[in-house]
Amino acid sequence: MADQMQWANALSTRPSLEAAVTDVVEQAVSSLTVPADLGLVFISSAFASEYSRLLPLLAEKLAVPVMIGCSGGGVIGTTATGEPQELESQPAISLTLGYLPGVNIQVFHVLSEELPDLDSSPDAWIDVLGVEPSPAPQFILLSSAFSSRINDLLQGLDFAYPGSVVIGGQASSGGSSSQISLFCHDPEGGLHQGLYREGTVGLALSGNIVLETIVAQGCRPIGQPMQVTKAERNIILELDEKVPLVVLRDLISSLSEEERMLAQQSLFVGIVMDQFKLSLQQGDFLIRNILGVDPSVGAIAIGDVARPGQRLQFQLRDAEASAEDLELLLERYQNQQGSQPSAAAAFMFSCVGRGQGLYGKPNFDSELFRRYIHDIPIGGFFCNGEIGPVGGSTFVHGYTSVFGICRQMTAE
């Protein structure tokens, strides 16, 4: 058993921070047969005034070489009976511990001003993070929602670490008054330990570990794919050589009454990531906001760069579409598994706009996940932006649930 990867997650809703920390450490440690190499901790914003006490309290009760974590408007974890639970707007801590034989674990904290320019060489990114590109590391990033230049960091990682998987989320709070926090403990890291308000903390895991992803953006396509024939920056000036607003009005008039109502507040655009793929399905689109329209010229502004030649398709999002999207992706993942070593643990980074507010009931995404991928610990939090790959590149998403599924590369 000692040469097998082991993971445990524990969850506590004790309102006292000391009691909650004691609770999660005792539960998680008792679930492992060996000392942990790694910890990830997520703490709800109900404890915002006590964030500075979290790492010292954990250090009193737990000897783990590397620990990262952050605050969230809610946390996600696994109960003592193995049920996933999403705890929103209440005191809660989720602690995940991992024993990872054959895995090299590195931790870093990087500020926006330390990031290289986007035209820098891969070596510049490797120097900043101190992580070698081979064997390809798997990254877990926790970022401040502001001033972290997270999009630049993701582009840099994709560039300098080809073949790596990057997942994570932006720390969140329960309200504007709560400060967010990032946590990072590394005994060998010098300044790279403690509590941070800015930047990004990250883990790089390389060796005998695979990180597989499910990125559920919660939309379903409407109408047909179209090509951007004229654009400037993020403004679409022509779709299939027609005025975008006219195209959109024609599309909306063809919808059912229910869909037309939904389109008034939940209309998005899906950028096709593989320009050569003809049969499009969930997971083939990068979902982006429609920021506004210019009625004078019929242009549409979107939350990303629009380029001539891109294909896109309008999308609707609601609870039903969101559930269908995740289920389709889970079915596809399950069907692709074959004889690979089974999953050992999972991380869930879900938008603060999902959860009970979207579905009208708690634990929806995590319970659906568990229906397909059973009996593994799951930990995570509700984010202000979710990090995960679509079409081979890494993006920050909204209204999304990103799952990272860990397993060994080789069966023992």
TrEMBL record:
Residues 244-390 form the FIST C-domain domain. InterPro entries: FIST_C, FIST_domain_N, UCP018953. It is found in: Cell membrane. The lineage of its organism: Bacteria, Bacillati, Cyanobacteriota, Cyanophyceae, Nostocales. One of its GO terms (cellular component) is plasma membrane. It comes from the Bacteria. This is FIST C-domain domain-containing protein. Residues 35-243 form the FIST domain.
